[in-house]
Amino acid sequence: MLLLIAPILTQTLELNVLFITTLKNNTIFVKKAIMKAKYIRVSTQEQNTMRQEQNSADFDKVYIEKESGSIPFLKRKEGQKLFRDIDALGIKYIEIQSVDRLGRDISDILNIIKLFNEKEVNLHVADIGINSLINDKPNDTFKLIISVLGNVAEMERNNMLERQKNGIERRKAQGLYKGREKGSIISDEEILSKYKSLVNELNRNPNESVRRLAKLGECSTTTVSKIQKILIKQKTIVPRNKNEEKILAFMDKRESDG
What we know:
Elements: H1 2-14, E1 19-24, E2 27-32, E3 35-42, E4 61-66, H2 77-89, E5 91-96, H3 106-118, E6 122-125, E7 130-131, E8 133-134, E9 137-138, H4 140-173, H5 188-194, H6 196-204, H7 210-217, H8 221-233, H9 242-257
Parallel strand pairs: 3-4, 3-5, 5-6
Antiparallel strand pairs: 1-2, 6-7, 8-9
Helix pairs in contact: 6-7, 7-8
């Protein structure tokens, strides 16, 4: 009997797929184990993912994203890859450390969970120990808790931005905040480095509207246009139409005129 299943086990080990074998009435049943994945996210290249990676060896696939939570999940490189692999590899279980690893926008979080449910993927949130599916059916308690935590994540981000704005205003009033020195020139590379998330989004989706990009990058539409111009100059992206070419040419002339 062991000789009969040995070729099967050998083949499955080569494919890195686990099987569970049981014996009943002299019949061998072979069941394919679910493929498990872990999604890890930090907001910047400098942040450490070690805490989130602690049990990574327990998973078949690990996706490490270094991208702002303000970027929609399906517009992130690893987020897109994860969804492709759900279909291609049959991933049925995903773990995240906390709800805010999915993002900081409650509508996007709920939309991603809805897509997971539609694909019958069980999402496990480690820090609260709860699953999105119970017996392959949506867990109503999970949705309620996630809605609350997702709103909290969104409020935390908004509060952080508000505190930052108030702090700058206070320092300006005290004469302690000068910002960039008037007349100083910031290089193209410094601008691109400062707005990495926006640059990544432009490279992925150059046809996104300027207003939408400004919201994602938490900057002005003027800054978005400036970054577009730099990327076009570097031939990373191309102008979307003749009108955009004219606008960028006008900005060039205005800057050269001082």
